[in-house]
Amino acid sequence: MPFLSAALDRVKPSATIAVTDKARVLKAAGRDIIGLGAGEPDFDTPANIKLAAIHAIEAGKTKYTAVDGIPELKEAIIAKFQRENDLTYKPNQVIVGTGGKQVLYNALMATINPGDEVIIPAPYWVSYPEMVALAGGEPVAVVCTAEHGFKLQPDELEKAITPKTKWIILNSPSNPTGTAYTRADLKAITDVLVKHPQVWVMTDDMYEHLVYDDFVFSTPAQVEPKLFDRTLTVNGVSKAYCMTGWRIGYAGGPAELIKAMATIQSQSTSNPSSISQWASVEALTGPQDFIPVNNKIFKERRDLVVSMLNQANGIDCPRPQGAFYVYPSCAGTIGKTAPSGKAIGNDEDFVTELLEAEGVAVVQGSAFGLGPAFRISYAAKTSDLEDACKRIQRFCGNLR
Question: How far is Cα 328 from Cα 316, in angstroms, rounded to an integer?
Fold first, then answer.
């Protein structure tokens, strides 16, 4: 359609949203569908957080706020960064956005010029390369194999950096793999970045609190203070606080960058929801005891899914240390024939045939930059996960 912008030629629709929407349509049509595509906790938002929102409404806190967040939420974010990450920010170094995605997008829009390169370890969250492309930049994917735990290796990072490199985007624990970088892992990466002063660091810490097996979380600016002045540390309340629909993300970074991001935001959405901001103050300053309770359930689900998937013919599922995803390889199924008679030529064929044959909706690994694999979100009822894994086992067993 000639009326539409040529910028759309540089971007693809979100594969995770597409799978979720397709599962919803099939379910509405009467199919027995188990949707494991959405990265969203199935737990409800804690009662104290909901109550804080109700109190904000009753108190009339329903007007426009400062574009980049209310002072009370900024102070809560500053305290969180200091308490949990040993990072010290001032209010003009913090921004609040409508979800972590907007914060990331605003940073790229505020900094990317045509031809600028952004290094993105793959597998990656599907939105990273698309946001870079929309901003006019060039996403540079660096493949991180299962052999190395899906982690970026320092020598591969060194090879990927060019004079055009402007950012690297790091995400730990990772969507889609659940991989989590240890402090030593990050030190090896930051040692490389220190040598390249033109490269800025965008770190997506959205799954910070969703870690298992005594894993200790670290963030790059904490590990290497020399990078503090060129690091944007992004986080939010969506995952750990079960607040995906509230749409609050935030970041700490250099004041000049934060100001530029606020300028972008002022001419797009303006301030995030005032009610969601007050709820987020309570999330960050109120009781945190529900997080380990939820994590215990997530860990049990992870162990269940990993065990059952590894019993499926042709599937190899690593055990991740964080987030609520597993990223199994389906390489052992490629070349086989599905019950429909269709040959499984790649991971997209695998997930399509799985949905048609067994009603299980997952996302193909190629959408995240590395296949043949698929992503399962285990942020779902345990009974649904068990049923889904049995269906996957049956599907794989019926391949010929």
Answer: 5
